[in-house]
Write a structure and sequence with these properties.
single chain; 176 residues; mainly beta; Deoxyuridine 5'-Triphosphate Nucleotidohydrolase, Chain A; ten-stranded antiparallel sheet; two-stranded antiparallel sheet; 2 helices; 12 strands; globular
């Protein structure tokens, strides 16, 4: 079940979920808007990326950044979130952002029990550069209640992240 604005406001008021700092107009009818932070990672691999090795990134900290056409960039939300063991969230791009050719993803899912900022994968599908500005609403979280609390809430390799984080696929268990 997707949670309504009334339920989301109640859960925020009772600290069942945390979204901080929460902007004045963040709560939508069935979601909470998140804003773009000021921390980015750009891949600097020149030949190929291996899933068995840590990728190399250039770190960018700026209130404004240009994402060239057909370019991939990692970014973070301004907001830190905390989900209980019985609640998950979808990360969705805002329609107005998609209409200028900026695709937003984070693998689409935030697990129950996650705590931290959300790393967003951004792709400029347009043929012109797009200027990104920290503080602009960039995505929305759609919350859904699970049928019961997770037996093992998320405590993975991205738990507690407070900035854009590059891929840690090289740490996956199937590698060990």
């Amino acid at each position: 079940m997707i949670l309504s604005d009334i339920t989301l406001q109640h859960m925020l008021d009772t600290d069942e979920i945390q979204v901080t700092p929460l902007s004045e107009h963040a709560i939508q009818p069935g979601s909470i808007d998140c804003r773009l932070g000021n921390h980015y990672l750009r891949s600097v691999s020149e030949t190929q990326i291996s899933m068995d090795m840590p990728p190399q990134y250039e770190e960018i900290v700026a209130d404004k950044v240009i994402i060239p056409p057909h370019t991939f960039l990692l970014a973070t939300t301004m907001e830190t979130i905390r989900l209980p063991a019985y609640l998950s969230a979808f990360v969705e791009g805002r329609s107005s952002i998609g209409r200028i050719g900026l695709f937003i993803q984070n693998a689409g899912w935030v697990d129950a029990g996650f705590e931290g900022k959300i790393t967003l994968e951004l792709y400029n599908a347009n043929s012109v550069p797009i200027e990104l500005t920290a503080g602009r609403r960039i995505c929305q979280l759609v919350f859904c209640r699970m049928d019961q609390a997770a037996a093992v809430p998320y405590n993975g390799k991205y738990q507690g992240q407070n900035r854009s984080e590059g891929s840690r696929i090289y740490q996956d268990l199937e590698r060990l």
